[in-house]
TrEMBL record, chain A:
InterPro entries according to UniProt: MetI-like, MetI-like_sf
SUPFAM superfamilies with a match to the protein in the record: MetI-like
Protein name per the record: Carbohydrate ABC transporter permease
Record family assignment: Belongs to the binding-protein-dependent transport system permease family.
UniProt topology in membrane: Multi-pass membrane protein
Classification via PANTHER family: ABC TRANSPORTER PERMEASE PROTEIN MG189-RELATED, ABC TRANSPORTER PERMEASE PROTEIN MG189-RELATED-RELATED
Keyword Cell cycle found: no
UniProt organism field: Micromonospora chalcea
Subcellular location per the Swiss-Prot or TrEMBL entry: Cell membrane
Residues annotated as domain ABC transmembrane type-1: 99-302
Region: Disordered, residue numbers: 1-24
Pfam families tied to this protein: BPD_transp_1
Spans traversing the lipid bilayer: 43-64, 98-122, 134-155, 175-196, 217-239, 281-302
């Protein structure tokens, strides 16, 4: 395999076994050293697994304790009695509306992101016209610019729009949906663009020979063919928008004293930063648990798709 | 077949481009404009001050601090995350026993992969709020509680974690504690990425290496690692962006969002501080433009360094 053209990484000559004749190779890994290494692998992997799982489990179990138990026995993973009403209390203390707002925004913002993103990516990837490159690079440049740069003018723009179009003002769901879509377009277009490029021309041409319009070709032929890409970028967008906290903190502010329409990430920050739960530790734990369990469960059920979807998003 | 192409393309692009121009491009352009004024943010009066804001940047003590903290994260977050992810991927894929089919992954590697990936699907906010409780500075925190119980830490003098500005290896301790969270949450994702890349390397390369008498360490360092070059450089670029965006952690976990005593300021927190607490929007925009230039230069630099001829297989 002479394709390896550059020097390798840090060579660890101390661990490299001397060359063996091929006949002896079968027991290279099953000898004493191999077994120790196997044991060490398991030990280290198990330690890291515990470091990941234990904090999560601790949060969930603390959410089921009484407040005095949280203070008295902070470390124990087994509550004296399961306090389910912590969840009820946290739920009515605001988490319910956080969930509702998040769901309401995400259903539309993710759908619209996917639709507009793949439409734009398709037009840019498969049609030659003047300004094609310019528009493509305009979208791409959004990937490198820090969001904080746009914060102040963005809020001002939204505020001014709200004066004449109240539905697009601060603290409005529709506004947040459009902002999410706009800010998700860069990566979605970047990803789908490379995807549409790889699809064969012949099928699109056949569809058009059969008399399908460009729009029809896109929706009934090309889009179904792009399904693997759509799943990847869809998972990416769902997680990204569910986790978004900066844009809602900036834009879902109450300007005229009405209650804020907070989404989940924003609401949790506020609860913890402003100590909204003050001495209600179990309630805060319950809130965090409710924010993380749905995502974790969805992930465990669809772990193969989520893993390959997210890593494909990076690998492209 | 060119019939109606112009109308079709316009129809498909009009809405996305309009949204993007209004909510992304226009705010960026305005920010660049404001950075040349002394606008306070709340009044309508603004005066053109030329490059004054930019000149001021260079003598601002806070910016200098934030700059070095950003550089700290830029170096350490990718370095530690990739090293740990590679190590985990290595154990997972070559830590198992060897049989006729070659070296195997450890038993249960599928379960490990699922678990290690957990933090990736949690939002940074959930992670931050959770770690806030783990890092509590009294016996109620997970780590302090454990250490007090086994007697490693004095109950009257617990670890201060993110409230600790004392330097460790020349860097405020609070930054090391934040770094730990970043590595904790990122390692699993990149491990899965590297694992997938390792498995896409054709078996016959390994067979050839084993025929040549290479052991698993040798094979890993001489064959696997070089072939992973592409994935590693992609990971480096992405982690670079994440490192620039540690703001959620700073925002939730440090006292007065950048404290204690400005020990954990990064660019984003300085922008926020100047814009919303000191009411100097013009100046905040200048910092943001500087950050944008810094980011773009960095991205270009990284692409340049990591661009190498691809190894096709």
């Amino acid at each position: 395999m002479s394709t390896v053209t550059h020097p390798s990484g840090p060579a660890r000559s101390d661990t490299a076994p001397p060359a063996r004749p091929p006949a002896a190779r079968r027991d290279v890994g099953n000898g004493f050293g191999g077994r120790i290494f196997n044991g060490f692998s398991h030990l280290f992997l198990a330690v890291w697994a515990i470091m990941v799982v234990y904090p999560l489990l601790w949060v969930v179990m603390s959410a089921l304790k009484t407040d005095s138990e949280v203070i008295r026995e902070p470390l124990s993973l087994i509550p004296d009695a399961l306090q389910w009403d912590n969840f009820a209390r946290a739920w009515t203390a605001g988490i319910d509306s956080f969930f509702l707002n998040t769901l309401l925004v995400l259903v539309f913002s993710v759908t619209l992101t996917m639709l507009l993103g793949s439409m734009a990516a398709y037009a840019l990837a498969r049609y030659e016209f003047r300004g094609n490159r310019l528009i493509y690079w305009m979208f791409l440049s959004g990937l490198t610019l820090p969001i904080y740069l746009a914060a102040v003018p963005l809020f001002k723009g939204v505020y001014n729009t709200g004066v004449s179009l109240p539905l697009l003002g601060p603290n409005k769901h529709l506004m947040l949906i459009l902002v999410y879509v706009a800010w998700s377009l860069s990566f979605t277009i970047f990803f789908m663009h490379s995807f549409f490029r790889t699809l064969p021309d012949s099928i699109a041409e056949a569809a058009q020979v059969d008399g399908a319009s460009h729009t029809r070709t896109f929706f009934s032929v090309m889009l179904p063919m792009a399904k693997p890409g759509l799943i990847s970028i869809g998972i990416f967008n769902v997680l990204g928008q569910w986790n978004q906290w900066y844009l809602p903190t900036l834009l879902m502010q109450s300007v005229s004293g009405e209650p804020k329409n907070q989404v989940i990430a924003q609401g949790l920050i506020e609860l913890s930063v402003n100590q909204g739960y003050k001495s209600d530790w179990s309630g805060l734990f319950a809130g965090v648990t409710m924010a993380m369990l749905p995502v974790l469960i969805v992930y465990i059920v669809f772990q193969r798709q989520v893993q390959s979807g997210l890593t494909a998003g990076v690998g492209k | 077949m060119r019939h109606g192409v112009a109308r079709f393309v316009t129809g498909f692009l009009a809405l996305p481009v309009a949204l993007y121009l209004f909510y992304v491009v226009w705010p960026f352009a305005q920010a660049a404009g404001y950075s040349l004024t002394d606008w306070g943010g709340y009044s309508d009066s603004q005066r053109f001050v030329g490059l004054d804001n930019y000149v001021r940047l260079f003598s601002d003590e806070l910016i200098r601090k934030a700059f070095w903290h950003n550089v700290f994260f830029l170096v350490t977050v990718p370095l530690f995350t990739i090293a740990l992810a590679l190590f985990l991927a290595f154990l997972l894929n070559v830590g198992g026993r060897e049989d006729r089919a070659g070296i195997r992954g450890v038993f249960g590697s599928g379960i490990y992969k699922v678990i290690f990936f957990f933090p990736q699907v949690l939002s940074l906010v959930v992670i931050a709020v959770m770690w806030q409780q783990i890092y509590r500075t009294d016996g109620q925190g997970l780590i302090n509680g454990l250490l007090i119980k086994i007697g490693l830490v004095d109950a009257d003098n617990p670890i201060a974690f993110t409230a600790d500005p004392e330097p460790f290896l020349g860097v405020p301790a609070v930054l090391w504690w934040l770094l730990f969270i970043a590595v904790w949450s990122g390692a699993g994702f990149y491990m899965v990425l590297f694992s997938a890349a390792m498995q896409s390397i054709p078996k016959d390369i390994y067979e050839a290496a084993i025929l040549d008498g290479a052991g698993r360490f040798h094979t890993f360092f001489k064959v696997t690692l070089p072939l992973l070059r592409d994935s590693i450089s992609v990971a480096w670029v992405y982690l670079g962006f994440i490192a620039l965006d540690m703001y959620a952690l700073v925002f939730v976990m440090t006292p007065s969002q950048g404290g204690p005593n400005h020990a954990s300021e990064i660019f984003a927190s300085v922008i926020q501080f100047n814009a919303f607490q000191k009411g100097q929007f013009g100046y905040a925009c200048a910092i943001a433009v500087a950050l944008a230039i810094f980011t773009i230069l960095l991205a270009a630099l990284q692409l340049r360094i990591t661009r190498r001829e691809r190894i096709e297989f």
